[in-house]
Structures are given as C-alpha cells and as structure tokens.
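Work Package 3 (structural annotation) set out to generate three-dimensional models for the target panel prioritized at the project kickoff. During this period the team completed the workflow that converts sequence records into discrete structure tokens, so that structures can be stored uniformly alongside our sequence database. As a representative example, we reproduce one entry of 110 residues exactly as it appears in the project archive.
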Amino acid sequence: MGLSHDAEKIINESQYQEKLKQLIQRVEQLLNKAGIHPTEVQWTILVNHLNEMIRRSETGESLPKVDERLFSEVSEDALNIASVVVDEITNLSVDEKYVLSIHFETAKYN
C-alpha cells in the first residue's frame, strides 16, 4: 500500500499519530486477508476516517445514531472487518461499524 501525500499529511498532523499508524497497519492486514485493495484515494479517505474514529474514542464523542437498515446491502465481510476495527479502537458506539463498513464495501469493487 502506498499512501498519498494527503494521507501522509493526515498522519503527520494527527495528535494520535502512533495509534493511527498502528491502526492503519492493522486495517491493511484485515483488508489483505479479505482480498480487498483500496485505491490511493480510498486509502486517503479511510485514513482520515480512522483518525476521526480515534479522536472520538479519546474524547468520548459519538456519531449521530444511524439507521442500520440503510446498511442492509453491505456485505458480511465489510461489516465484520469494520466490527473488528471498532472493537480494537474501543470506546466507540456500534454506529461506527456501519459507517466504516462503507469504505470496505466500496473498495471490494475495485
């Protein structure tokens, strides 16, 4: 995986830089295992989202409630990867899993 300049900038400017780097490596492992390969642009958007998830975990902030039915067509693979990531970050609402899963679902079709 090669990260774009923009993704590198997000990492370098993150106040949670080490956590973010470790999380990106973990997500890359999960995606490789599932045969999902995001594009450079998808990685940049995902890195930003992961950074924001870490921030919410640290601050106790949460996403607005989502309607799970809107995600009924998201694959089990994408939801499972998102669930693992949310569990590993800790202190996040279950709603995070659904929003995160869209990144993985979209990347499946590259």
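The chain is about 65% helix and 0% strand.
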